[in-house]
Amino acid sequence: LPPQSKQSSSYSGADTTEEDSESLDDMDFLSRQKKLQAEAKMALAMAKPMAKMQVEVEKQNRKKSPVADLLPHMPHISECLMKRSLKPTDLRDMTIGQLQVIVNDLHSQIESLNEELVQLLLIRDELHTEQDAMLVDIEDLTRSARNFPPLTAPTLPSG
């Protein structure tokens, strides 16, 4: 069928009235909107647990401190450093050189964590901007869908 006859055949059914096609379009739009809203809610609900899991995985994957290699005779120190739970007695038993190695390592960890934080904050800001744009688009689409005149069936030329 040519395109015009396909259109006319879809609108020419005896049981389809103008009101029915309008309500079908409205229901179709509303059902899609509800489906998208439900998906968005589910994604938002999953975001926090997923982020926590990702942080835990990254903690486990984090490389062990190079201080552990420099202090092989003190394995409990390197383990305490990884857990960030050094005790004053541990520090008293160390030489100034060993303490300086620990301080340098902690400074480099702080610097790398700060850089990572800045990158994550930039990504978060970009995602917030994208989210805001999407929400504005959704609002505009919803508003314009409510303002559309009802669809009417095209008339075929007689002849």
From TrEMBL:
One of its GO terms (biological process) is positive regulation of hippo signaling. GO terms for cellular component: cell junction; plasma membrane. Residues 96-130 form a coiled coil. Residues 1-29 are annotated as: Disordered. Residues 16-28 have a biased composition (Acidic residues). Residues 3-145 form the Schwannomin interacting protein 1 C-terminal domain. Keywords: Coiled coil. Residues 1-14 have a biased composition (Polar residues). It comes from the Eukaryota. This is SCHI1 protein. The lineage of its organism: Eukaryota, Metazoa, Chordata, Craniata, Vertebrata.
